[in-house]
Structure formats: C-alpha cells, structure tokens
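FIELD: query
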Amino acid sequence: MLITHARLADGREVDVRTEGKTIAAVETTGTLSADADELELDADGRLLLPGAIDAHVHFRQPGYSHKETWVTGSKSAAAGGVTTVVDQPNTNPPTIDGDAFDEKSEFALKSLVDYGISGGVTESWDPDSLFDRPLFALGEVFLADSTGDMGIDADLFADAVARAADAGATVSVHAEDAELFDTSVKGTDAGGEGREADADLWSAFRTAEAEAAAVERALDVGAESAASIHIAHTSTPEGVDAASEAGATCEVTPHHLLLSREDLSELGTYGRMNPPLRSEARREAVYERVADGTVDIVATDHAPHTREEKETDLWSAPSGVPGVETMLPLLLNEAREGRLTYERVRDLTAANPARIFDLPRKGAVEVGRDADLVLVDPDEPRTIRGDGLHSNCEWTPFEGFSGVFPQVTTLRGRVVYDPAGETGALSATFGDATGTNVRE
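FIELD: result
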C-alpha cells in the first residue's frame, strides 16, 4: 500500500509505503509514486497515526462471553484505532498458571488485532508454569478485590513482585488499600447516615486515600526487589505524583480523565468502577498531569458488563465500563479542541506504551516498524452512541460526547477496519482474525 498526502502528528506531510507487514518508506509528500500492483490511498491531508496500544483490557473470555468475546472486543478495538491490546487475568478460570494461559490463548486466536496476555496472582497461582509462557506482564495484580475477587495480601504481593523481578516481567498493579475504605457509608440500607444509595457513595466508599496509600506501598515493595512497577488506572494526582517521583510508570483511563463525581447523578450504577470517579478538582489535576507529560500512558481498563448486570442497586452492580473503542477518538477530540496536542495523543497511546512494555516494532510511523496505521480526519468528529459501538455490551459512559474515529485501520499492513471501503481491500467493514501474541 502507498498512502499519499498524509499528515503526521508532528505536522509533517508525508507519503508512507508499506511492504508486507512493515513500513518500508516514509518520505516527504510527492516523493513516492505507486507501483503498478500497489494499492494507493490518498489521505488528502488527513492525520496518520501509529496504531494505539491499549495496555489494559478485559475481553472476558474464557468464562464471561456474554459480556465480551475476543471477536467483539477486537472489533471494537480496531474500530477505535487500537491495534494491540493487553488482556488482564481476571477471567474464569483466572490466568494464574500455564494451563489457564493456554486456554485463553485459544480464544485469542480469533482476535482481529495483536495482543498480549498478562498473568495474575492468587493464593493458588503457579508462577513456574506461568512464566514459562509468552507472558506480557504480571498484572493486573490486585491489592483490593474487584471483578473476579483476586485481591491478595501484602506477603503474597511481595513474593509475586520478587518472582516477577527474577523473570524480568513488569508488574502492573491495581492499587487500592481496602483497609482505608470508608465502610461507614454502607452502614444502613439507605447507604449510611441517611443518605440515599446514589452512585456517588461508591466514590465515598473507595477513598482517594486508599489509592494513594496503596501506590506508595506498591512502589516500596517494587524498590525492594528492583522490580519494574506500573500503576494501573491511576485516578488521583497523588498517585500519579508518587509513581513519577519513584521512577515508576502509570496509566490514566479516559473515564478518570474526562468524568468525575459530578457525572454520577446521570450515570448511576453505569458509573461504578474501581478505582471510582473522583472529585472534579482531582480530575482536573490528573488532566494537567496527562497534558504536561507526567502521566506515561492512557489505557482504558475496558471492562464491559451487560445493561442487565449494571441496572441493579449500587452495592450489587459490577464495577467497570467499556472504553477500548472510544479511547483514541476521545483523545483526538481533546486535541481537536486544543486541550492536548496530537503529538501528546500519539505518545500517550502508542509511542510510550511501546517503549515501556518493550514493543520495538510498535508505536511509531517509522521505517521498519509494523505497519499498524490509523487514518483519521479531525475535521469530522461524530457523536458517540453506545448502540453504534462494537462491544458486546452496547453502551458507553461517554454517551453524547464527541469523538474523532478512524476511517481506516491497518494491522501489520493488512486492512482490518475500513467502514467506507476506501481501500477496496475489504468486502466488509472488518478484516479477518489476524492478531498474534506480541511476545511470541
């Protein structure tokens, strides 16, 4: 394929040639011409980005295919410009040993996009067989229970970090200290002290202090073992600053970046997630750290549940929201409106995760890299509607927001998403399952 008249995130106007699975040339516009057997796509000044890497998704298979599958999840990823995903271990069975890893790998063969599979930790985990597999990372390691009830105690956490350090694996941590949850808000059927059991009580229950303390503990344990610690879905400026000061990396989700407790009256139980939404002041402080480079990456914690599961009382509803399809479009809209730069969006979603997680073939529009490319037109945002997305759950916490969605997505030179048929490479919107494990 030859893509002409494209604009990169840094403003350069280029022609890009792909050969096989890789980028073969990136030259100033007008330099390259198409060969006779080469598909030519005129970008006409549109923005060309490296495929996004979502380092935190829950595609739910095995065990919870009614929520999501590798097919629906990867379609959602491709339609959102995500060409690599990292699946987390809290499935059924949980990915805590070699056999469970192998079982999940069979489901992942149906993925349209590239993927990594992270291993988890419970009392019955088998690190020897787990680290014998092409593991992406150890994580999401839970310091407090979330979906899947995989929270572990301090001793097991320290042992797991040490084992990961010996294996050279990054440890991605879900940092919340359950001992600092405010249980008083659960004191009565009404949610405590006469308050209605509104969705904001989840934020009051799982306190910001609980996250900050757990981040500090995780960093201390990591330092003792010289382990590589990555703090998942950081929702507080205190957590971001602690990770940055310790030389660790951290991620922020789109929902913690763009939503706050002020949105919970409208979201209801659809806004319950772990960690929960924070105050508007904390949200703004986290956004500042995303914009100024303190935050390393944006990842979604894509955690779909059905409407039926969500539409219950606050204390029974499962935690989590979908997000893999809307992450890049939302960030591109932030850049379109001048709150972020396109270069920052590129770094948060592609360059930085490729560097942090040692994916040297991903994350950049450069010669020799995988031809994972996303073509978008920032001048054509669209309104986000849950029933127009591709996740199994068919809803989004960003209903009514604006997003800049991909017009073409390629994975290693193969078109995997082309809703308008621009490339002529697909007979339908999506390509076939072509994803592979990035650690193999």
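FIELD: remark
Confidence is low (pLDDT under 50) at residues 188-195.
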